[in-house]
Design a protein that fits this description.
single chain, alpha/beta, five-stranded parallel beta sheet
Amino acid sequence: MSLRRLELIDFRTFQRACFEPEEDGTTVITGGNGTGKTSVLEAFAYLATKRSFRGAPAGAMVRSGATEAIVRAMVDGPDSPIAIEAEIRPVGSGRARVNGKTTTDRKTLAAAAPCTIFSPEDLAIVGGGPGGRRDLLDDALAFLDPQGARAADELDRVLRQRAALLRQAGGSSSPEVVTTLGVWDQRLVSAGEVLVAAREALVSALAEPVADAYRRIAGETGCALATIAYARSWDGDLSGAVLAARREDLRRGVNTVGPQRDDLVLQLEGREARTHASQGEQRCLALALRLGVHRLVCARTVLRPTLLLDDVFAGLDPSRSRALVEALPFGQAVLTLAVPLEAGMPVARAVPVEELVVP
């Protein structure tokens, strides 16, 4: 699969823009800082996830003065072209359509606009809190495990409803509250057990691809062994842990136990990467995680996600930059660059961002 055409209307600073990358190989979008290079990648990634990889709210993606932004793409699918469109509104929820049909399903969107995104914000996957690491796993499940992806969506719904009940209870443990809470507890456990099993299987499958990608990207300095492991946030079975935490949940008005508090442990030679790795090592490890997922998706599905690499050379020395490009898997990739492209880099085409603007 590959992105054939991407159209932006009132997205970020673009009134209208159109991008047609090379089908195979790396297309480089060049331009200075603040010229909209990252916005092009953000728009395509939004189609797959319905969120900004930059962590921006919907309103920030709508051009000033416009009522909504529209992103359209045509993707060459395994059997036939796929048309996908998203409406983004500052207030309220926008809509996404795949071949004209409205959808909110995580797997449907991911399969329609498959992409693997790496950006400077990905440093937070390694050095930040566990939320970003959980998101990485759950986004991968959308490609690799339909049951796990459905469980992730269900758990999100259950946690929102359960949290609302806990807040409304105000610390009360009346028979009515306890009965209703028991229903949500059961749904939390059912979805949580499926999701955790899927995450653990995914982490096991990712271990070798991530370690290999780290060695290749880090080059001569990448002799350290990169390892990943899934860490549950409770002891024993989930049902017992949720029940044991009920009084505390009611007191605090929040969900204190469940997969929403689990973590992905990242280490280099047995040292926790979050606290002991250099920024260069963290950047290489974050990219290795993305490439590991990309490789697994290509090996296990008919999908061939487009690699989106935003400002990927920032913080990398020339040897690591070249090792990175050489480590990219075969297929379509789009890379943004704010500095001149080094001579001899194996890319298919370079496009100034100004050429994407439609008059």
